[in-house]
């Protein structure tokens, strides 16, 4: 049986990053500094898993053009396998990531080839290795579950994933825009639902994180709610457990949630209990926000060092 790997059918796009003092008022303007561009989105999740020692593969779309070329080059540089051929219809998409002086990020996204998956594309993704006997971890981004992107083909593909594989759904900032029918269909197969506090409150209608975890557990098999420096909540069965975070000076929170998800899945792949995997993920995200850029996930050694210091 082959070793577990992470397979993401999320969206790898290009982050165009602008650091600003604060968001401008409507009709106003603000001067940006420290601008740059780098692959982001599901790329951050895949990188985090690889740096935690888990082989990873990208099963999402990518296009022909300069942005698609950058995505493929970055994936190759990190040792991440690309499972699908490039689309000839469009280039890869991008987003504008506005990062203010408090480290918070706000996005404007433009979809490209990653939002145009087809059923034949997904049929080419073989889970479990060459003989389909292995245990893979499948990462699903909410961006791909929108009606305007891949919901029509991705939701039935997720529903048909064979038992034995672990499926994690991360709704992302546009989670509230995913149709209730799609979320309900995906929830029947998903093993984990991972979101931040804002997303949890919006999707559950609850007033606080604890009540949100309880409410989301009524739909999802297991839930993890990221709380930033306060750590996260892990809800399995009837238990909700707080897993503490790490006090660090955040420089850039862009990609922190993705790094958390990748490290959490890496912990599960290593056979860790959910709370132990969540603690690993908290450490990974804490180290990531101390560095500029979205794909700043640390190595196993760096995470172990932080866990050792905290312990």
Helix fraction by DSSP (H/I, runs of at least 4): 25-40%
CATH architecture: 3-Layer(aba) Sandwich
The whole-angstrom Rg is 18 Å
- Return residue spans where pLDDT drops below 50 for at least 5 consecutive residues: none
Largest sheet: 9 strands, mixed
Any idea of the CATH topology?
UDP-N-acetylmuramoyl-L-alanine:D-glutamate ligase
Mean pLDDT: 93
Count the beta strands.
Answer: 13
Label the structural class: alpha/beta
* Through-space gap between termini: 35 Å
Instruction: Write out the strand line-up for the largest beta sheet, numbering strands in chain order.
Output: 5-4-1-8-9-10-11-12-13
Q: How many domain units?
A: 1
Helical segment count: 10
Quick one: overall form? Answer: globular
The helix-strand sequence is EEEHEHEEEHEHEHEHHEEEHHH
**What's the CATH superfamily, by name?**
Ribokinase
What's the CATH C level? Answer: Alpha Beta
Report the portion of residues in β strands. Answer: 15-25%
